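During data preparation, a discrete fold description was generated, as reproduced here:
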Amino acid sequence: MNWKELLKQKITLVSDGAWGTELAKRGLQPGTVPESWNADQPDAVQAVAAGYVAAGSDIILTNSFGGCRFKLDKAGLADRTRELNRLAAEISKRAAGGRALVFASIGPTGEFRAPLGVKAEQEFVDCFAEQIRACIDGGADGIVIETMTDLGETKAALRAARQVGSFPVVASMTFDHGPGGFATMMGVKPEQAAAELDAAGADIIGSNCGSGVENMIEIARLMISATKKPLWIKPNAGLPELVDGETVFRETPDEMAARIAELLRAGANIIGGCCGTTPDHIRAIAAAIDGASEVARSASRGVIDAL
């Protein structure tokens, strides 16, 4: 299954939803490294992936968001980096069963590049390359560099991906809304991110986390103004709220689905969910995409035709 042909055929693709909260429902305790479950609780991990396939996802991710060596080292799991990432891809591939593509989730390292931090540029590239190679060895069809705030780190992951091989690469950043508009915590604007990640060679560009669907509509408009690459958008189920010491996301599947046509008109090509979203949210998003007008669905036809 080729992602470009699939996008040309369907016009809009559906990605998956949140993983952390779904694993927590299945017993993942705070403080437990989620990636360790790829070896210890593979059936629970596969159930999350399978739930999204059943909900209508064309692309599902892997339980590997925090699976780089820098992060696993803090939990004493660095020597299992390759194993846990390979297993993550193998589990999602089994769940996909040929009905969905599997893109491996590659999250931030948690480190800063020199001079803000102590890690050199090449160390970031090497760290990402190790993780990405393991995911590809496990059968991943592509990768998603996601929830990024620093352009330099994102580009290091892109370099690593191209070093490993030829496969689709999504580069997705997280923006917050402040007095100066939308920007990452490192001050990167959506249109700047789109232009620079396009030039750096990302196949698909977008945003995930940090905002509900309403803000993502504006982020999509800003990003599409600076790139001709397909746009990947995964909003949270609203903004997080602290209730009795627990973080909750209140946006219902129907509330999120009601804004999907606007998101399509803003230029989104691949739509899913991030924090707080569930298979029910993805099912509602898929239905909203199917029911959207031809005008809304064809807003980014030029991007698709150029693939």
